[in-house]
Design brief:
mainly beta, 3 helices, 45 strands, flat
């Protein structure tokens, strides 16, 4: 019994002692486990918050490169740009529901050039770690934004020109002669060109995903309409370097009766900058347009091209044709994929539905059958699958434009874009010495050496044969307010005759104007000027000579006010009188034909001038005068800007003015007497010239020039579509990234 009781006491003592040690052990282990768990929870929260900050910083950099945001950076408008990005960051932080505020007030930093950075900092309160005296932790995230504004801080070049797709139309099944080629029609029928009797009489107008043509690089194209015509050679010119064959979308459908068609391919595009390049060529020739090309970013850019005076090439034979209105037209589309098949548009004749909905580029003519390379700058905001489509959209007559060497690249495609400027440097496009027709005059009497019945419609000057410039339909000058001008024989500096913009009739305030079809590039207008009025004294600040070059870098001061005993150096029949000092003002204007009213050329001598207005109406009073100007509050951004101005000169002055054209179109050059209209004294002109200097990226471009306004859309502006944006009519070649 004793032994048994002793053993029980020892056991109870043992357990009493071990229980205390185990309690301590478990207490220490439990505290460690609890600390690890709650600490892990806090660490996980910190990690998640850090991830969200990193994502926000990255999204902020992407937001900072959006074209609509980058557009805020203009001159010194960096503050608005930074504020826009910082506001986005604030909204993004709120959307993340972090429950914290940033500790730095301006996370986006940009100085106006070079790189930009996003730095996000915040303090995250702990839930459990405060037991360890850790009440909050500081976290931060940074992201370097590559500069797409100044283009001096860019991602590594190794990824700058990756090719998404290349299509050289290298699959035909034949090589050799110009007639060697094949027609491809959905759902995959292939027939050799020249196999007459095969006809695609019923075009496919319902969108499909069936592949009709697979190129040599594996690009798969869906064909809608009649067919895709792939030729080993196009017309009289070889394919451009880099291409294998050419594709004609107004294809020969097997019977030569028509064939407007489209090709579409679906490609996955990640977010970022892209460039689309392709070559375009005309088949039908329009003499009124040669040697210019007519392309743009929107349908309105080419709407002026309505000539039907054409010839076409058929089996190496030139045939005169009429009524082929814009038969060469090729449209380019880019559309987000929504249904697995290409979205559709209707051709301009309403006859067919073809692939493509969002128009991003269009060409209707390339002069002299030369290849024109097009560059389209694209920024993808929403990654996903996109349909790239090319479609013929002119007359469906089997004579259409051709495309070659299609490339879609990330960043910028390798190699420089072809300079499409149609003339060599310093080519004189037009010159009028006002010597033809020749007018008779008397060598004696008060009105000696003056002919007051000059018909400006027949003053055509010289162009075309010597320079290859277009043989335009609108020959001669338009004159206003009547088709009549004084010709001066006594004081011409070049040849035998000059013209005066004053006049001895009932209308002293006169202008002459003429349209020129021009492509993007730099041009020079030159002429001679002399004033008719002989002023015995010069009011301040008038000097001899007194001319102003545009654009003016400072405010100008122009003389006005009455001057007595003024005589005419040209017409002795005008007695000495008091006139305004502005009587000999001549302003030189240049405007796009769709922005300002243009005089109708071809009226009878002395007939009242009619104008074609920007809205298409014809009136005798212009709705937007081609010489409308306020000299006291001149606005250089007006649609008909001044490019030069002369007020007084007692001897002939050689004047030059440079202009920059940024969009193909007809531009009207206007010389106008813009001084006081009550006198018979005006400025005289001689030897007017228009000279082509070079394309938009020419080396040695003029340091001073007037940039001519264009109809909407403005070159260099941004157009936004579903999922992406483009730069309209990029001015520089190659265009900068968005």
């Amino acid at each position: 019994m004793t032994t048994k009781r002793r053993r029980g006491a020892s056991a109870r003592a043992f357990f009493r002692n071990d229980a205390g040690q185990v309690a301590i052990l478990f207490g220490l282990m439990g505290f460690a486990i609890l600390t690890g768990v709650v600490g892990g929870v806090d660490l996980m929260r910190l990690y998640q918050a850090r991830q969200k900050l990193s994502e926000t910083a990255l999204m902020a950099c992407q937001f900072a490169t959006r074209p609509s945001v980058v557009a805020l950076v203009s001159g010194t408008n960096v503050t608005a740009y930074s504020s826009k990005v910082n506001a986005y960051i604030g909204n993004a932080i709120g959307a993340q529901r972090l429950g914290v505020a940033l500790t730095n007030t301006a996370p986006f930093s940009y100085s106006g050039s070079g790189a930009a950075d996003v730095t996000l900092s915040t303090n995250v309160k702990t839930a459990f770690s405060k037991f360890l005296n850790a009440t909050q932790f500081k976290i931060s995230a940074t992201s370097h934004c590559f500069d797409t504004i100044a283009t001096i801080d860019q991602p590594p070049s190794s990824t700058a020109s990756a090719t998404v797709l290349t299509e050289t139309f290298g699959v035909t099944g034949c090589t050799g002669s110009s007639a060697c080629g094949y027609l491809y029609a959905a759902p995959g029928t292939k027939v050799a060109i020249g196999t007459w009797g095969y006809t695609v009489s019923t075009p496919t107008n319902v969108s499909s995903s069936t592949v009709g043509y697979t190129g040599s690089t594996g690009v798969k194209w869906v064909i809608l309409g009649h067919c895709l015509e792939v030729d080993s050679k196009v017309y009289s010119n070889a394919v451009p370097a880099g291409a294998f064959n050419t594709a004609e979308l107004d294809c020969d459908n097997g019977s030569g009766t028509g064939g407007n068609s489209s090709i579409s391919t679906m490609q996955y595009l990640a977010g970022g900058n892209y460039e689309l390049r392709y070559f375009y060529n005309s088949r039908v020739k329009y003499p009124n347009y040669d040697p210019t090309y007519i392309c743009g970013s929107t349908a309105s850019d080419v709407s002026f091209a309505t000539s039907a005076n054409s010839t076409y090439i058929s089996n190496s034979t030139t045939t005169t044709s009429t009524g082929k209105l814009r038969t060469n037209q090729i449209n380019v589309y880019l559309d987000a994929n929504t249904s697995g098949t290409p979205p559709l548009h209707q051709t301009i004749d309403g006859a067919q539905n073809l692939g493509g909905s969002n128009l991003i580029d269009v060409c209707v003519y390339s002069g002299n059958f030369d290849w024109v390379e097009r560059s389209v700058r694209i920024y993808v905001n929403t990654p996903g699958n996109y349909w790239l489509s090319f479609a013929a959209d002119g007359a469906g007559d089997s004579y259409g434009g051709a495309i070659a060497d299609v490339r879609l690249c990330t960043g910028t495609c390798s190699g420089s874009v072809t300079d499409n400027f149609p003339w060599t440097a310093s080519t004189v496009l037009f010159e009028d010495k006002f010597d033809s027709p020749t007018y008779s005059y008397s060598t004696s009497g008060a009105g000696a050496y003056i002919n007051t019945s000059g018909n400006m419609t027949t003053s055509t000057g010289t162009s075309g044969s010597s320079s290859g410039w277009p043989n335009q339909t609108a020959s001669g000058w338009g004159a206003a307010p009547i088709n009549q001008l004084d010709y001066v024989m006594k004081s011409a500096i070049v040849g035998a005759q000059s013209v005066e913009l004053g006049g001895t009739g009932t209308t002293a305030h006169r202008l002459i104007s003429r349209g020129f079809l021009l492509d993007p590039g730099y041009y020079k207008v030159s002429y001679y000027y002399i004033s008719d009025a002989k002023l015995p004294s010069l009011p301040t600040p008038l000097a001899d000579p007194y001319c102003l070059s545009m654009p003016q870098t400072s405010s100008w001061s122009l003389p006005s006010g009455s001057v007595s005993n003024v005589t005419s150096r040209i017409n002795a029949s005008i007695a000495a009188t008091a006139v305004d000092a502005s009587s000999s003002y001549v302003g030189v204007f240049m405007s796009h034909g769709q922005l300002a009213s243009t005089p109708v050329v071809g009226g009878a001598l002395s007939s009242t001038t009619s104008y074609t207005n920007p809205d298409g109406t014809t009136t005798t009073t212009p709705t937007v005068a081609p010489d409308g100007v306020s000299l006291t509050s001149y606005n250089s951004a007006q649609v008909n800007p001044l490019i030069d101005l002369c007020a007084y000169a007692t001897s002939w002055q050689t004047r030059t003015a440079n202009v920059l054209v940024t969009k193909p179109g007809f531009y009207w050059l206007t010389f106008s007497s813009i001084g006081t209209t009550t006198e018979k004294f005006g400025g005289a002109l001689d030897d007017v010239k228009l000279t082509a200097l070079g394309g938009p990226s020419m080396s040695g471009a003029p340091s001073s020039y007037v940039k001519l306004p264009t109809p909407s859309v403005t070159p260099g502006s941004i157009s936004t579509f579903s999922g992406f944006q483009i730069v309209n009519d990029p001015i520089t070649v190659p265009a900068s990234t968005l």
